[in-house]
Amino acid sequence: MQNTIEIRPDGLYLSGERTLLVSGDFHYFRTLPGGWARRLALMKDFGLTAVTTYVAWNLHEPQPGTFCFDGIADLPRFLAEAQRAGLYVILRCSPYMCAEWEMGGLPWWLLNTDAAVRTSDPTYMAAVRAYNRVLCEKVRPYLYTNGGPVILVGLENEYGSFGNDLDYLRALADDYRKNGIDVPFVSANGADPFKYYNGSLPENWNGVDANAGPGGLHDLEVLRTFQPDKPLMAGEAWVGWIQFCEKEFSLNGNIEPAAEYFRAALKMGAAVNFYMFCGGTNFGFTSGSLDAPDADGKFRFSPLVTSYDYDAPISEEGTPREKYFALRDVLDEFLGKPARVHPVQTIDAIALPECAPLLPNLDRLADRTVQCAVPRTMEHWGQGTGMICYTTRLAVADPRRYHLHLEGLADRATVYLNGAYLGTVMRDRPGAPIAFRIPPEGIRIDILVENLGRICYGYAMQYDRKGLLGAVRLRIQNPDGSYIWNYALVQNWENRSLPLTDLSALRFSTAPAAPQNTKYPSAAPA
What is the mean pLDDT of residues 442-446? Predict the structure, then answer.
């Protein structure tokens, strides 16, 4: 007899038996596969009944029609390991996931089409359907209805915070069903009528995303009014928070409020999913970014760090924290289990005996070098992540001060003159002027632009291309402090794509690297 899944007003029933659903997010692609089993065992020992994970479309289809399910992308292996650990799986395989990940999980190459992402637009849905055919083939054997661990599938994510195209949600659900996904759908949105009703279908089991604290309990009560015929569900109970570049790294916070929230939510009969339960790492260039308010309240481009530790109960390196044990005590108390302890992992020092300076290795790392009149974006050259280097030469000697301006910079540029560091420019930050003089022999300018992660949340994600989107221009300052009238742009550039996905050509050395941040001698102080 086939396994069955029912969502009744009083809870989740698996093959006719009521099942307590307490879960936590652990993203397989943020931990090396050798560390999956240990973390899943810690989740099981905690008392969780399920593990929740997103599925990153851009990881599995890095180029159109090219699919990857190896290494950290080995989703079938992860699902099998979860089942061996005795955990069910909530598979949030929506095309979009946010997760503070590069472009929210959408593949960068959609920017080279006219697709209106996360809508019923035919161009976008054609790409989704092509991907889903491959993804669902991988997932189908692991559905609970086929004897596997996957009991619920996520239909989009916080869609009410992006749009209101319910036809899109229905088309997405129909496509999953067409591909054999026969388990119930779940969704999660904010506890606001605008977000809830624009972001979910009434037949799905819908939850709310909120802090694991008093506000989160209030949002569960609001959810009850939206969805009285289904059990309460905390789609994401945030027990930590994301970490932006240039911000202080905070740990071991929110322990007591999270424990009180968990205790109250269990008494309310809610299904609780902790976000995150296991911290992880944004390997390579997979970190996302947000338009977020700065200290002055102005919204600015805000990249996230490569660590996705999240101050989670299980840390980035796989160690249970005080938060883990505090929350476990709450669940043990609810289930009538005795108090217990758990050994702590220790990690030895890691030696880094070799290095490879970037500038001498540029030509070995470049997978494409093209001469063109003006700088082009990464997307123009078919590049998704990494860096791109723009090089030009100025041959006319001039003792006046030249101020370099980069129009439409996305995201961070490091500028070198004849191989010596001149300065750094950051997207939408004022920064210090980058000024120099041209010596008699002329100069070579290298502008190394790093993709710090495409915006992963909100409308701006549809337009966030990388590299130099506008002109490079020079303001020329006379000795008396005035500037010449000059709207010319700098032309004739060498564009080198540096995706940094293949590092096999790098030349490493045990010798200390020569410093590359020495100011160019002809650079003028700002």
Answer: 95
Look at residues 135, 23, 11, 134 and name the one whose alpha carbon lies nearest to residue 82: 23
CB 204 within 8 A of CB 153: no
Closest CA to 105 of 143, 154, 71: 154
Parallel, antiparallel, or unpaired: how do β-strands 493-498 and 368-372 relate? antiparallel
Contacts from 334-337 at CB under 8 Å and sequence distance 24+? 334/263, 334/266, 334/267, 335/47, 337/47
How does DSSP classify residue 293? E
Please name which of 19, 77, 16 lies closest in space to residue 50, comparing C-alpha atoms. 19
CA distance linking residue 77 with residue 406, whole number of Å: 45
Question: Full-prediction pTM beyond 0.85?
Answer: yes
What six digits make up the tokens of 29?
Answer: 């692609």
The encoded tokens of residue 403 equal 């101020």
> 522 pLDDT band (50/70/90 cuts)?
low
* pLDDT, average across residues 323-351: 86
Q: What does the chain come to in residues?
A: 526
pLDDT of residue 524: 47
Mean pLDDT value across the chain? 93
pLDDT score of 247 more than 90:
no
CA distance 243 to 250: 8
**Helix (H/G/I), strand (E/B), else coil: 22:** strand
Looking up tokens 């810690």 gives 42
Place of tokens 């217990």: 340
Picking from 60, 64, 56, the residue whose alpha carbon sits closest to that of residue 109 is 64
* Residues sharing a CB contact under 8 Å with residue 44, sequence separation 6 or more, in sequence order: 85, 86, 87
The residues assigned a catalytic role are 158, 236
What is the C-alpha separation between 408 and 423, in angstroms, rounded?
Answer: 17
CB 339 within 8 A of CB 332: yes
- Which of helix, strand or coil describes residue 328? helix
**460 vs 479: CA distance, rounded Å:** 42
Round to whole Å and give the CA distance between 108 and 501: 15
Largest alpha-carbon pair distance within the chain? 89
Residue 304, φ and ψ in degrees, nearest 5: -100, 155
All residues at 6 or more sequence positions from 51 whose CB lies less than 8 Å from its CB, including other chains: 23, 24, 25, 26, 40, 43, 82, 85, 87, 88, 89, 90, 277
With helix as H, strand as E and coil as C, how does 42-62 read? HHHHHCCCEEEEECCHHHHCC
Distance of alpha carbon 345 from the chain centroid: 27
**DSSP secondary structure string, 175-239?**
HHHHTT--SPEEEEE-SSHHHHHHH--TTSEEEEEEESSHHHHHHHHHHHHH-TTS--EEEEEES
Residue range 76-91: mean pLDDT, rounded: 98
Q: Using CB atoms within 10 A of its CB, is residue 504 exposed (0-12), middle (13-18) or buried (19+)? A: exposed
